[in-house]
Design brief:
325 residues; single chain; alpha/beta
Length: 325
């Protein structure tokens, strides 16, 4: 069992983190003092497995939101690195600038070319300032669209990774047409004649997520969320206080299970117990399985039928019946 001391813990994870620290200390002590304490370690590891199950299998929507934002969670570039080879990043929207909060380019997976793109956050403050905390400007969406048009031209499938608190709401972004850039992407992605597979890997915040989120298959990772607004934003509007964020998270029905039950997404990508950051490779393999299976199926569908099915898929979202009184 690997050392866990480097993984920062969230409030609700404290019992797990403390026990992991104890196990690591005991193992270190065993090595240093040349004592055999494997029996004690085994007991603690059994107890840890039980506590992990209790904590992580009964998470509230708000706790899942916190896991979705975990600072060690794998980001788009991490998944590209684990899943694909020969990644060549393509920069710039050919209008204004290169937005570093959306990255994209060509890569190879299973011997096949893929156009891959996604939101990219930073690991520290310096990198987050460069990446604008994963909140794209209009030029980010225009760059993404440029890459998608290129993919369509050469019949290359598209894979996108969503992980943004939302599109950047600054004055400059509004002046350069933030709403128009997202709306344009929605319209164009609906008619792109090439397979598109979407993964929400962390935060799926509103139009900022939708700007690269129209596709043939949409998946949300087990501890990711996809919502019209952040829980904090919702709490501020409804109750005028951020402390009600857990209530907002519950009311918004933003978890992968809620979204799947409502027919908004096609599937849930399983994560290692405790979140993708605890075993990024396992999380990546689960994504790879979905991409491989879907691309095989989607490539067999004629292009006109692919667009018809995509249109029907999005038209059916939001249809519901009022319960009879």
């Amino acid at each position: 069992m690997a050392s866990h001391s480097h993984i920062p813990g969230l409030d609700f994870e404290k019992p797990v983190i403390e026990l992991e620290r104890k196990i690591d200390e005991l193992k270190g002590f065993t090595t240093r003092e040349d004592l055999n304490m494997s029996g004690e370690v085994k007991k603690l590891e059994a107890k840890l497995a039980q506590i992990k199950k209790e904590v992580y299998e009964n998470l509230t929507p708000w706790q899942r939101v916190q896991l979705a934002r975990h600072p060690r969670r794998p980001y788009t570039l991490d998944y590209i690195d684990m899943l694909m080879t020969d990644f060549v990043e393509i920069h710039g929207d050919r209008h204004f600038a290169d937005d570093k909060s959306i990255i994209g380019g060509l890569a190879t997976m299973n011997g096949e070319k893929i156009m891959v793109m996604g939101h990219q956050k930073g690991r520290d403050t310096k990198e987050n300032l460069v990446r604008n905390f994963g909140s794209p400007h209009p030029e980010g969406y225009r760059k993404a669209m440029r890459l998608m048009n290129m993919a369509e031209k050469f019949s290359i499938p598209i894979v996108t990774f969503i992980d943004t608190p939302g599109a950047y709401p600054g004055i400059g972004a509004e002046e350069r047409g933030q709403a128009e850039a997202i709306a344009y992407n929605l319209r164009e992605m609906a008619t792109l004649q090439t397979p598109i597979i979407i993964f929400v890997i962390g935060e799926g915040g509103s139009g900022g997520a939708l700007g690269i989120g129209v596709g043939d298959r949409i998946y949300v990772m087990e501890n990711a969320y996809y919502s019209v607004i952040s829980p904090e934003g919702c709490a501020a509007i409804l109750w005028k206080e951020r402390s009600r964020s857990p209530d907002a998270a519950k009311a918004l029905k933003l978890t992968a299970k809620d979204l799947f039950d409502m027919g908004i997404i096609d599937g849930i990508i399983k994560e290692p117990l405790g979140g993708a950051h605890r075993n990024p490779q396992e999380a990546a393999e689960n994504i790879k399985t979905a991409i491989t299976k879907d691309l095989e199926a989607l490539k067999k569908i004629p292009k006109s039928k692919l667009i018809e099915a995509r249109y029907a898929k999005f038209r059916s979202i939001g249809i519901f019946d009022e319960p009879s009184k």
